[in-house]
Amino acid sequence: MSSFNEMIQNITPEIYQSLKLAVEIGKWADGNKLTPEQRELSLQAMIAWEVHNLPEDQRTGYMGPQECSSKSAPVPNILFKSDAIH
């Protein structure tokens, strides 16, 4: 394979699951530990594969819509009071 992109195109769902498990537990299926470089490249491959094969809400790192906790309480408008506008 001549490029990272070609490699990503050849990843099957089974290979993706294997990479994902290896990154999660830090070991290959045979029990050997991933080196830091292997973990980094495997994670990059996972994320690249996910971009082309999974909906956004199923991808690694997806946070979903979030609101600030202070948004639940109304904030009074101190600049413009409704009775001041006539």
Provide keyphrases for this structure.
86 residues; mainly alpha; 3 helices
Description:
By secondary structure, the chain is mostly helical. It has one domain. The chain is 43% helix and 0% strand. The chain is built from three helices and no strands. It has helices at residues 4-9, 13-25, 36-53. α2 packs across α3. The model has no long low-confidence stretch (mean pLDDT 85).
Q: In DSSP terms, counting alpha (H) and pi (I) runs of 4 or more, how many helices?
A: 3
The major β-sheet equals:
none
Helix content: 40-55%
Class from secondary-structure proportions: mainly alpha
β-strand percent reads under 5%
Give the secondary structure arrangement, pairings included:
Elements: H1 4-9, H2 13-25, H3 36-53
Helix pairs in contact: 2-3
InterPro entries: DUF1315
Pfam family, one: DUF1315
Protein name: DUF1315 family protein
Please summarize what this structure is.
This protein is an all-alpha fold. The chain has 3 helices and no strands. It holds the Pfam family DUF1315.
